[in-house]
Amino acid sequence: MNTKIVCNNLNITIKALRVYEQEGIVIPKRRENGYRDYSDKDVMKLQQVILLREMGFSLKEIKILLDKNKEKQNDIIHSFYFQMKVIENKINELQNIKLTLKENINQLLNAEESKEEVCFNNIREALEHNKAERKAWVDRWRFDDWAPKYDNIVKENPKDELGVFKKYDEVIEKVRKYIIKSLPKKVLDIGCGTGSLCGELDKSIYVTGIDQSIDMLLETKKRYPNMIYKLGNFLDKPVGKEEFDVVVTTYAFHHLNSREKNMALDYMIKYLKPNGKIIIGDLMFLNEEEKERKREEFYNRGRSDLWQIVEDEYYSNIEELKVYIEKKGYKLEYEHISNFTWIVTIYK
């Protein structure tokens, strides 16, 4: 594709194309006559550059991000995913500024003396915070590119001193048997990862897998092509209701805080058919007393560092879940597997 066509299609100037070429961001091949020839990949990359410029990223940041995206399969999917994440990051920046402006207004409404300088400082701090967060986001991008190795990392992690994934295979197998025993026609797996739980069922059961990692979904799609895949998470509002016989999740629920857990349970219930089941295999405590006993055990062993890892997540309190779910008219049963791992079943 020649320069004129690219400029017309993307509404971009020749000067901008030359700048991106000089910066090593998009370098088209040359034809025998010396004219530039932009490939489809070049055009797709330029589209990303335009969006990133609109979102306020510098050319240096753009080059770092696009270099990290090199050599990826499913280029068009990764391109759209990348652009979606850029917009999410920008929304977070704008929300931070909006909140700061609102706080400034409230301060000025109730101030007995001039607070303008304080308010301007608040805005400067918000902008500096956004700048630092954007740099951190650029540095982190593609950091979680570990989908192909995920299963081995979980099973063979020598640093898992907490025993978080102890009896991992047993948990997966047990939850899978619970699914099969329910004789479902349609199953929803939230946080499906690499499909280790439901992938083997995709030939006989209609399985939909949801995950917030595009790389996990693409890796799973290679292994289990019969599954249906959706990019998302627990807190996405259900589009369809009463659609699935079983909603299941393993080793993902502990990333949600208490409020988010309740919201996720509400959504999971909406996904369920009238006689459906929710099955959760995850890291939990039976109650606060058990959590306190565990905490004392770690502190007595001089391993408060390990306990801090537990505190950094949101291990469920089963008794609290039971109270919440019974108010919804459902029953909850639980089974302890090993260490922190429990299986919870919710049904009518």
UniProtKB/TrEMBL annotation:
Q: Return the InterPro entries for the record.
A: DNA-bd_dom_put_sf, MerR-type_HTH_dom, MerR_fam, Methyltransf_25, SAM-dependent_MTases_sf
Keywords in alphabetical order, please.
Coiled coil, DNA-binding
Q: Which residues form a coiled coil?
A: 84-114
Taxonomic superkingdom: Bacteria
Q: Per the database record, which ranges form the HTH merR-type domain?
A: 1-68
Gene3D superfamilies attached to this UniProt entry: 1.10.1660.10, Vaccinia Virus protein VP39 (3.40.50.150)
Q: Name one Pfam family in it.
A: MerR_1
Please give the name of this protein: MerR family transcriptional regulator
What's the source species for this entry? Answer: Clostridium ganghwense
